TrEMBL record:
GO terms for molecular function: chloride channel activity. Residues 152-164 have a biased composition (Basic and acidic residues). Belongs to the anion channel-forming bestrophin (TC 1.A.46) family. Its main location: membrane. This is Uncharacterized protein. Residues 150-177 are annotated as: Disordered. Keywords: Cell membrane, Ion transport, Membrane, Transmembrane, Transmembrane helix, Transport.
Length: 387
């Protein structure tokens, strides 16, 4: 997302430079033919050009308004992700009780069938202390630079190499992942794991919407068994919500008070349902672009108008025709390019929703709720761009 007060000329030229240059050269050809070679047939009446400009302006305004609505909806949805993540962590840390009995007895009494999915079995099994995984604060998730080019950190290697390194790194039992001090001592291991799972979910959602592999980004937040089970999932964020719900079911089974279990189930399920709705809404925006007819029609009309423009003004403007063409071409080509850009807010480009920065904000907030003091720094804008 562009947050700087000044827009880089590199970005401007990337948007409109080539198109403007082509139409300026065409206008220069028209004025040379008209004045030097007396080709008066190159002049056309100005009235049709003016009418076409008005119609084109209306269509561009309509398309850009629709594109901005999609961009703003995407940002609003990720604002909801931030809020519901904080809500989920607060509910986990303040509402979930300490276990009263063994999970095996509870499951039997509640007649809950054991999960058959490898992923859900990792959620239903007895919780172990979270393990220390190096690199919790290393990933920034922004794999493109300010011009949309791929940006890979050489030391990270491929996703498979990164996963293999993290899985084989020395680990110490009983030490919470990425935590170095300032812990809140009365937080249960189940609650801590669920809060980390929420951090992993938002990062998986970010990668899912950007068509990136989420596993290297969420390794620091889950046990190796969970990561291994997630390899078979097509929709990792949705699978994580199911995993979190199953993990919560295991905790409910350790509570003897039926009314308390019902209250916890209703409260926590509403939060997970809201996260599911947000994920589905983001997928709708990602997978349903504006009708291509708008793009084709506007592109054709914009090019036709800019071809007719120098022919319509060459008689009145003379040698100023290329200059006027450059200004008007910059305006119309720029408006068309901006509309195309903001209609797809999850492409990890300069105008997109800053999901990387929002994921880092969520991680900082939730880890502070866990009482951690050594936190990753917020993502800062670079060259006026925030990813």
């Amino acid at each position: 997302m562009i947050v700087g007060r000044r827009l880089s000329w590199h970005i401007i030229l990337r948007y409109v430079g080539r198109g403007v240059a082509i139409h300026v050269l065409f206008a220069l050809t028209v004025i040379v033919g008209y004045r030097v070679f007396d080709a008066e047939w190159l002049s056309v009446p100005a009235m049709p050009v003016s009418v076409l400009a008005a119609a084109l302006g209306v269509l561009l305004a309509f398309r850009n308004g629709s594109a901005y609505d999609r961009w703003w909806e995407a940002r609003s949805l990720w604002g909801g992700v931030v809020n519901w993540s904080r809500t989920f962590a607060r509910q986990v840390l303040t509402l979930l009780p300490r276990p009263e009995r063994e999970a095996a007895d509870s499951l039997k009494e509640l007649e809950l069938a054991p999960p058959t999915s490898p992923l859900l079995r990792t959620a239903a099994e007895r919780s172990k202390p979270l393990l220390t995984v190096s690199g919790t604060r290393a990933s920034d998730g922004a794999v493109r630079d300010q011009f949309g080019q791929a940006r890979v950190r050489p030391e990270q290697g491929s996703p498979r190499e990164k996963l293999a390194t993290m899985h084989t790194a020395p680990q110490e039992e009983g030490e919470a992942r990425g935590v170095t001090g300032g812990m809140v001592t009365d937080i249960t291991e189940e609650a801590r794991e669920l809060v980390y799972a929420q951090i992993g979910f938002v990062n998986a959602m970010r990668c899912h919407l950007r068509r990136q592999d989420p596993l290297p980004e969420i390794v620091p937040f889950f046990r190796p068994a969970v990561i291994e089970a997630l390899r078979e999932e097509q929709n990792v964020p949705s699978a994580l919500l199911l995993w979190m719900g199953t993990r919560l079911r295991r905790i409910y089974g350790q509570v003897s008070n039926t009314q308390q279990v019902l209250f916890l189930h209703v409260t926590m399920d509403r939060t997970l349902s809201e996260l599911t709705n947000v994920l589905g809404a983001c997928e709708r925006i990602k997978n349903t672009p504006l009708p291509r007819q708008y793009d084709i029609l506007l592109l054709a009309m914009t090019r036709a108008y800019l071809v007719l423009l120098p022919l319509g003004v060459v008689t009145e403007l003379g040698w100023l025709t290329p200059l006027v063409t450059a200004v008007i071409a910059f305006l119309f080509i720029g408006l068309d390019a901006v509309g195309r850009d903001i209609e797809a807010p999850f492409e990890d480009d300069v105008s997109d929703t800053p999901m990387t920065a929002l994921c880092r904000t969520i991680e900082i907030n939730l880890r502070q709720m866990l009482g951690e003091t050594e936190l990753p720094p917020p993502i800062q804008p670079k060259d006026g761009l925030l990813y």
